[in-house]
């Protein structure tokens, strides 16, 4: 009773504080965030005490549903007699319904008894425990016989909690008008089992289809990789063969070019296109220094010629000057022709290598 009056006093003082007029005579406004109810904004449970003992869970849910939709009713009962202990924990779907229930139902009369209604900050309903998950520090202090007894007690308590939850759910459903009979529950269980079997079969079929598609894709990818590897191998083989043929042609052409250059250098050369006009004496002396021309043969060493020999050498150089100039132009034309031949051989080798690679790729595709 004292707790009921305390809640009423807190509510009355809060109303006077928040709705009091200011100095200008304006009435205040109600702000829930500044109310003492905001302290319990994270809990949707309320405690209801002083209930008549003849009320069941459905009766309590019917009375408390006027403040909001109820999602859970936990009414403890005596283990020996099974009668209610006169209090319950109510959980609303909307937390704001707890404010209405506390403000309006606290101190109300129900079947001649004064009901106490207050917020419940930390409500945790007893949950089922695992008998094999006894902490080590507890198990070490127990003998094997005591440990087995503790496990049996946990199993029995789990069965009681399960039965209590089923009973509470049934009473709650009866109060809401959604209760089902045993036949309907059995039919629902059979339907759920059939649906579960169909779902498992569909999942198995879906998994097999996915595995089949993945295997086909994997096989296709492996075949493509093998085809690409064969194509690259054929291309490398033809490229090596083409490069070998190109090297063979290049070596042969180089030997031919070397013989041609040797034959061209073996012919007499003039010092310049205008060698005939530079004077016979200078040309004769140069020929004498080279150790050839003017009828002189022998090792390449410096020789001293007389006046008559120098005159003869100058006359010979003057007579051959025109032919030597024409010979220089012919050698330039020969070198240009050789360069053109080199370019033609190089282009031909490249074309053969490309053609070999293309044929190898086509053969590999046809084989795959």
Automatic annotation (TrEMBL):
UniProt keywords, alphabetically: Coiled coil, RNA-binding
Keyword Coiled coil: yes
Record-linked InterPro entries: Nucleotide-bd_a/b_plait_sf (IPR012677), RBD_domain_sf (IPR035979), RNA_proc/Spliceosome_comp (IPR051847), RRM_dom (IPR000504), RRM_Ist3-like (IPR045844)
Limits of the RRM domain: 44-122
UniProt KW NADP keyword: no
PROSITE patterns reported in the protein's UniProt record: RRM
Domain of life: Eukaryota
One cellular-component annotation, GO: U2 snRNP
Biased composition, class Basic and acidic residues, residue ranges: 338-358
Region annotation (Disordered) ranges: 237-368
A GO MF term: RNA binding
SMART domains from the UniProt entry: RRM
GO biological process, one term: mRNA splicing, via spliceosome
PANTHER family: RNA-BINDING MOTIF PROTEIN, X-LINKED 2
Protein name: RRM domain-containing protein
Biological source species: Emiliania huxleyi (strain CCMP1516)
């Amino acid at each position: 009773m004292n707790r009921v009056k305390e809640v009423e006093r807190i509510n009355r003082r809060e109303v006077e504080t928040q709705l009091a007029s200011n100095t200008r005579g304006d009435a205040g406004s109600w702000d829930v965030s500044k109310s003492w109810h905001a302290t319990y904004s994270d809990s949707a449970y309320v405690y209801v005490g002083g209930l008549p003992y003849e009320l069941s869970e459905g009766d309590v849910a019917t009375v408390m549903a006027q403040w909001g939709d109820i999602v859970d009713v936990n009414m403890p009962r005596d283990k020996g007699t099974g009668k209610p202990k006169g209090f319950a924990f109510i959980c609303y779907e909307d937390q704001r319904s707890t404010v209405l229930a506390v403000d309006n139902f606290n101190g109300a009369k129900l079947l001649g008894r004064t009901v106490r209604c207050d917020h419940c900050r930390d409500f945790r309903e007893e949950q089922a425990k695992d008998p094999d998950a006894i902490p080590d520090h507890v198990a070490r202090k127990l003998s094997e016989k005591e440990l087995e007894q503790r496990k049996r007690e946990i199993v029995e308590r789990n069965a009681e909690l399960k039965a209590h939850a089923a009973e509470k759910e049934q009473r709650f459903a009866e109060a809401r008008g959604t209760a089902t009979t045993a036949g309907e529950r059995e039919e629902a269980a059979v339907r759920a089992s059939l649906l579960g079997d169909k779902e498992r079969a569909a999942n198995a079929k879906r998994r097999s289809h996915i595995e089949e598609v993945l295997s086909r894709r994997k096989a296709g990818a492996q075949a493509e990789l093998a085809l690409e590897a064969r194509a690259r191998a054929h291309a490398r083989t033809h490229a090596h063969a083409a490069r070998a043929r190109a090297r063979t042609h290049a070596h042969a052409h180089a030997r031919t070019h070397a013989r041609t250059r040797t034959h061209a250098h073996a012919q007499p050369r003039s010092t310049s296109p205008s060698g005939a006009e530079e004077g016979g004496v200078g040309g004769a002396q140069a020929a004498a220094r080279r150790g050839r021309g003017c009828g002189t043969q022998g090792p390449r060493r410096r020789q001293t010629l007389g006046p008559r020999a120098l005159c003869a050498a100058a006359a010979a150089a003057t007579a051959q000057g025109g032919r030597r100039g024409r010979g220089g132009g012919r050698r330039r034309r020969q070198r240009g022709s050789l360069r053109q031949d080199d370019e033609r051989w190089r282009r031909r080798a490249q074309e053969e290598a490309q053609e070999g690679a293309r044929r190898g790729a086509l053969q590999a595709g046809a084989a795959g």
